[in-house]
Amino acid sequence: MRVHSNKMDNNEPYNIKAHFLGVIFVLTNERVIAMISAILLMADLSILLNGTVYFNECPIDQRITNYFIMQGTTGSVGKLLPVLNKHADWLLLKYFAVICNLMTAGGVIAGSVIIYGMGQPNFDKEIGLYCREMLYNLGFLYVSTHWLLLGMIVIAISSSCFCWLYYKAMPTPKPSSDAQT
Questions:
Q1: CA distances to 19, 42, 148, 151, 153 from 156, in Å
Q2: Measured between alpha carbons, how far is 104 from 99 in angstroms, rounded to an integer?
Q3: For residue 41, what are the CA distances in angstroms to 76, 111, 154?
Q4: Which of 27 and 114 is assigned the larger pLDDT?
Q5: Is the pLDDT of residue 9 over 60?
Q6: How far apart are CA 120 and CA 180, in angstroms?
């Protein structure tokens, strides 16, 4: 009689296809996507709110607050439109959501040029042209987080493709004639 264990038998190959499909299922689960979208929506609303409240608090480079307002608006709209479209199913909303997401992606590139290009600004109002420290740090964190997430997505996709190709190249095991039951 054979006792079931969680260990793999040495004769059985690792089922990478089942593992890969399990990871894809978790990542495409509607609840997981909704949670990630809600977190990203809060980040977009946060920079939109900070950009409007502290609009004149960065005279050294006014583009930072403009960037916050643009990114917060397009990011929020781009994340809310699919929710609205789930009930309406309008083709125009799908295209508008894609346009908003493309503008958000372009905005990350523009934000990188603005934030990384200016270096660390003066934070003291009395010295001259300044930028509120919280605004600069929030912009730096927002842009850096986007690039970090993009890097993680690229690594996840390329490792998944590698695993998939490895699975396809692996020879199919032949059943042995002396298999025990």
A1: 14, 24, 12, 9, 5
A2: 9
A3: 6, 18, 22
A4: 114
A5: no
A6: 69
pLDDT band at 53; cut points 50, 70, 90: very high
Mean pLDDT value of segment 9-38: 66
H-only helix segments in the chain: 16-27, 30-53, 63-88, 91-117, 133-169
In the DSSP assignment, the letter for residue 161 is: H
Coil, helix or strand at residue 75:
helix
This prediction has a pTM of 0.69
Q: Are 41 and 79 in contact (CB under 8 A)?
A: yes
Q: Which residue type sits at 99?
A: I
* Tens digit of each residue's pLDDT (9 = 90 or more) over 72-119: 999 999 888 888 877 777 888 888 888 988 998 898 999 999 888 888
Distance CA 115, CA 120 (A): 9
Q: Which of 70, 144, 150, 141 is nearest to 107 (CA)?
A: 70
